[in-house]
Specification:
alpha/beta; TIM Barrel; Arc Repressor Mutant, subunit A; 3 domains; 7-stranded mixed beta sheet; 3-stranded antiparallel beta sheet; 16 helices; globular; heme binding; chaperone
Length: 369
Amino acid sequence: MRSCLTREAQTLIRLSQVQRISSVFFGGGTPSLASPFTIATVLETVSRCAHLAADAEITLEANPTSAGASRLAGFRASGVNRLSIGIQSLDNAELRLLGRNHTADEALGTLEEAKKLFPGRTSVDLIFGLPGQSVSSWAGGLEELLQLCDDHVSLYQLTLERGTSLFKQVQRGSLPVPKQEVVAEMYESAREMLRDVGFRQYEVSNFARNGALSTHNLSYWQGSQYIGIGPGAHGRFVPRAHGESLREARIQTLEPDSWMKEVLACGHGTRKRTVLSQLEVLEEVLVLGLRTDIGITHQHWQQFATSLSLWDMFGSSEEVKELEDQGLLLLDNRGLRCSWKGLAVLDSLLLTLLNQLQQSWADRTAHGT
């Protein structure tokens, strides 16, 4: 596996036009099961193939059961400088429901060790909307965590994966999930709790204080190029052969054995390559950019649409104006962004905005502009 990771990294970095790398994120599955030596080897390969910035953010996702104190120290020595811990819950019954192997005490123990090794750069993940969870129980768990956490928190609504035991129980009705209005209240109460203790909601699911925003995630939401390495990874970059403008979406083979065979045969395990049209790129810029509190500045938009401004796309739309009047959206000299209120209901806004983008694009394409 290690040799295949390094070989694919070499191949894809060479194929891309990427010369400087500002962040590396070891995620997906449980990367903390890999050895610190594997992490160090991958980072050494990356730094040989491109300029890995001296202040690059190197994040590792970890589960409490695979991240003991000595192992965390090994990851720190290997070059990791930021840790994201999948705590998920501080309720043991909820952890069992999720199929997690750690207890709440083990999670808190890992958090304490991580804060010593990665001070100010330890993130925790929590899940809400679980079967049997109430607004008060969710708020209580979050309040407990806020007494102990570092400067970054990520909140995710439960996603039921087809085929899992939890999915089947929910489908049968034996484990009813909270109603959508209750889930919305959980999210809103969490936003307010985090804001009250100094956290900035810089993205729909992510909160930071003391400037501890994730460089890697911000780059992704801002539409930067990124290279995905390993089974099931995905990426967005402009291959050298395409010149300066045609961005590709790439997905790597999911099955590890098949992926390794492809890497050994071809240098990479890319299963699917899709050249994105300019409209598709703009759609991604819109959807991802509006997830952040900054939104999309005019300058940023012009990097992707040199001849069509945000004003051109959205300025004359009655539907967009209505969203502004409702206090959900702002289009001004800074750019396009959601209000605090709008960020909580982003999904409901995107349908209108994407329709408007597509209509404006079609109109201007028809007129040759």
